[in-house]
Amino acid sequence: MNQLNPEIQNSRTGGKLNASVALVTGGSRGIGLGIAKELAKAGFNIAINGVRKPELVEPALEELRSCGVEAIYIRGDVSDRHDRQHLYEQVIAHFEKLNVLVNNAGIAPRVRMDILEATEEIYDEVLDTNLRGPYFLTQLFANQMVKQKKADPDFPCCIINVSSISATVASTNRGEYCLSKAGISMATKLWAARLGEFNIPAYEIQPGLVHTDMTAGVKEKYDRLLEEGICLLKRWGQPEDIGKVAAAMALGYLPYSTGQTVVVDGGMTLPRL
Ligand code: NAP
Hints:
It is a single chain. The chain is of the alpha/beta class and 273 residues long. It contains eight helices and seven strands, in the order αβαβαβαβαβαβααβ. Helix 5 links the parallel strand 4 (100-103) and strand 5. Helix 2 runs parallel beside helix 3 (54-65). The chain is globular and about 50 Å long.
């Protein structure tokens, strides 16, 4: 049984600290905040993570708390082994458990370069943040989830990875980004395969074009392409679109499925003639 219903858990235990808990990496803005908000609306206590100073994240925390849940910020770079350990320890120290890990934090290459010229430095930065970070953060929390499941087989938990349509669509001016997203896509399958025996599902969300700081620099280009019909649904994706899909996964509304990918791209990658 993997169905999460934090609100029922809340009323049964009478305390927010006993509600289900979600950690959203990169939850301080953009898609991550969109996911955190939908989970908060569903009654999850939330830990968000990012690299900026805590005072800059206060408005996001206030917004989450206005849903009546507990929300904390844990600063840390997911590409850094010590920061990941700190993130893990802080979540467990504060909430004593984790139900849902959302690996969302990610970066685009600082400079888009043709793969005939791109540098190893940018490759390392993107792969460390988008693949090595979430892969080993999942390892930390997966071991914790296995412990929780052994203590209570009904303990609901899951892992959600935010990849991208770049996991399958080749962009030769940001090869490292595509590789990192293809890698996290396989990581989802690996974790699903390893954790299945404990009844812990792993899911992947592949967003298309989502209106965030990451895409601010290419907004005009894609406004035009949207007008020309690049997507079947003629609009930008919004963080809450991804948030609603993540909430469905976290709440157990994809029962008897694991290792699966949900593409949230307005039909952009649908093959057409
Ligand atoms: P964004 O607006 O640039 O936000 C990135 C978030 O990740 C911020 O919260 C940032 O924290 C955090 N972050 C960045 N590097 C980090 C690190 N090393 N350690 C911890 N946190 C870090 O990006 P977004 O558009 O919301 O993208 C979120 C995810 O969706 C990424 O994995 C991205 O690849 C994926 N995605 C985005 C799109 C899109 O169109 N936007 C499409 C497909 C996939 P700070 O606030 O502290 O900087």
